[in-house]
Amino acid sequence: MPPGRGPMFARPRLFAYYLFMTDMDTRALDRELKRGSAELLILSLLDARPRHGYDLSKLIRTRSGGQLTFHIDSLYPLLYRLEERAWIKGVWVEKPGERRRRFYRLTAEGRRVLAQQKKTWAAFVEAVRRVTGDERA
């Protein structure tokens, strides 16, 4: 076995990884949670009615009490990806005295995906609650 490849050398790397995980920056964890739930949030808001990007961003910030924010730099690429997947459909709308806006609506496929994502999210939250013993999770 080449030097540095035995089980004794795997432990320091594992230990370093463990230290990294225990000292994880909470902002990094927040980013990962937001990234994992972004599609669910957007699809859920579009389930009620068509909305434009700024409206989606504003609703997420307001309804989350300011805990979640989506900057335009990340929101519009997400909307484009959802549209490419045919989960949402965008249409340009022009109103007198207002600038042109792209309104997005949920497609039938988007509704199917949303239903599955809601089930997955609920199962995840329930599993976390069971592990942590927190009845309010």
Explain this structure to me?
The chain has 137 residues and is mainly alpha-helical. Helix content is 64%, strand content 10%. The protein contains 5 helices and 3 strands; from the N terminus they run ααβααββα. It has helices at residues 7-22, 26-48, 53-63, 72-84, 108-132; strands at residues 51-52, 88-93, 101-106. The chain has a 3-stranded antiparallel beta sheet with strand order 1-3-2. Strand 2 (88-93) and strand 3 form a beta hairpin. It is globular, with a radius of gyration of 21 Å. Residues 7-11 and 14-19 have low confidence and may be disordered.
Strand order within the widest sheet? 1-3-2
* Class from helix and strand fractions: mainly alpha
> Which stretches are low in confidence, meaning pLDDT under 50 for 5 or more residues running?
7-11, 14-19
Secondary-structure element sequence? HHEHHEEH
Radius of gyration: 21 Å
Mean pLDDT across every amino acid position: 82
Our count of helices gives 5
Helix content: 55-70%
Query: Whole-Å distance between the termini?
Result: 48 Å
Share in β-strands: 5-15%
Annotation, overall tally of beta strands: 3
Quaternary structure state of the chains depicted: single chain
Specify the overall morphology. globular
* Main sheet summary: 3 strands, antiparallel
